[in-house]
Amino acid sequence: MKPLEKLADHMRTDWDRRVGHDYRFWMGEGHLDDVQxxxxxxxxFAAIAAGVKVGSSAVALEIxxxxxxxxxxxxxxxSRVIGVDISRLAIDKARELVGTTAKIDLVTGxxxxxxxxxxxxxxxxxxxxxxxxxxxxxxxxxLLEMKRVxxxxxIARVQLYLGQEMVVHEHDTLHLRSFAPENFKKxxxxxxxxxxxxxxxxxxxEGSQELxxxxxxxxxxxxxxSSVTAHExxxxxxxxxxxxxxxxxxxxxxxxxMALNYAEALADNGEAHKAKQAVDYxxxxxxxxxxxxxxxLSRVLAKASxxxxxxxxxxxxxxxxxxxxxxxNLEVLKARFPAVYAAVLAPSDADASHVxxxxxxxxxxxxSGSTCLDHAEKPKAAGEAWAKRTLLEQRFGKxxxxxxxxxxxxxxxxxLLAEMKVPVxxxxxxxxxxxxxxxxxxxxxxxxxxxxxxxxxxISSSEIPTGAELLVRPQSAIISARFVEGAxxxxxSRRGFSELHxxxxxxxxxxxxxxx
Length: 516
What we know:
Elements: H1 3-21, H2 23-27, H3 34-48, E1 59-63, H4 71-75, E2 80-85, H5 88-98, E3 104-108, E4 122-127, H6 136-149, E5 150-162, E6 178-179, H7 181-190, E7 193-202, H8 208-211, E8 214-222, H9 230-237, H10 251-268, H11 272-285, H12 294-314, H13 323-336, H14 338-345, E9 355-360, E10 363-368, E11 371-372, H15 379-391, H16 394-397, E12 401-405, H17 411-419, E13 424-428, H18 431-440, H19 444-449, E14 453-455, E15 468-472, H20 474-479, H21 481-499
């Protein structure tokens, strides 16, 4: 698969996931109902199409149409409207929402071209709140394709951001890209366009004057033939290229922050179930970023989770008897991790009242207070999604060992072990949680595959293998924050020393004296 096709495949995965969670939030400008979504679509289309004069038989095309938010308004002015989006789920939802009409064609695009559209067949092409979230090589490819499909008399309008260049991870499909005005003009000229800024406004009150960052609607008019490649256009847009370092901008951070703020708004509106779905979405798909959003997550859980726990308790799904698994799990635990076995059986006066169990169709899940340590409804699927999301991070792809903080009922560990080709270890802060897990699930196969297991105590730096990466479950970051900070300190101190290669220089006396 070519690099551009890989980027497109990554975009499709990201947006299918988001639409599957909540189409109105991710593709409908965050509106809570369809009426407001259609209203905002009409307003935004009027803004981007202002002053565009077309004939009665004109054809329009939207790049990144999502679930069709702007298509209804466009269909009122054009004889035919084509909506293209990379997300299959978005196009399916658009067909459901827009309904059957001869004036609107919906197309699942490749993410790198407009191949279903005939050259020189479009009068007006636009993109609103879509191009700015795409990787730069994809934006460049679309600029060339816009030139190809437009009639010589056609017009293009794009909404994006000009000002200081923004450092964004190449695989980030949510953060806004921003381009230096001179670089953007050079890129569109290479693609065969002349451009003019139709409107512009500061994107925020704070910091916008310093950065000169503008939210712009830009008009593009075909002006010349172009024989350049998408790579050349991309280099003109962003001469230094996009960052591939996840340490600079975490691709999951903004997604987690947006989803949790949405969850809090839902909880405030009394929509506890939808709020918990948004929290579960973050837990399953944005785990690497949840530490940064700890305060928001804590508030949302406090507002929404208790009501959901009461709902589940009112209609519990049975799970297997606690004694059905306990003896078998202890037998394997004794053989593989005798220190943990001894801790489990040692007399203790610890209060376990905060730990509870609920049944799901996949099996039992464990709660610590109002926080589900797995997934309240689909722990197996959520564990698998979490594991796959983890493997997308570059640091885990190169790791020689993965140390997971948080055991829960073990679904996520089983999924991770199935995906990883390197040893996986686990550290669980709460002995009561682990003791409950032994009683409600068959963990023998999991114990056999784990490399190392630490329960109920801090992990020492000597227990962390060279080349290991730390993977913190978001639930653990919330309910065991102090434990997690201690584990991180041990981990990074261990890794730091292992990667140091010091050299010692010995200096002789200066002028017959001694050195201080």
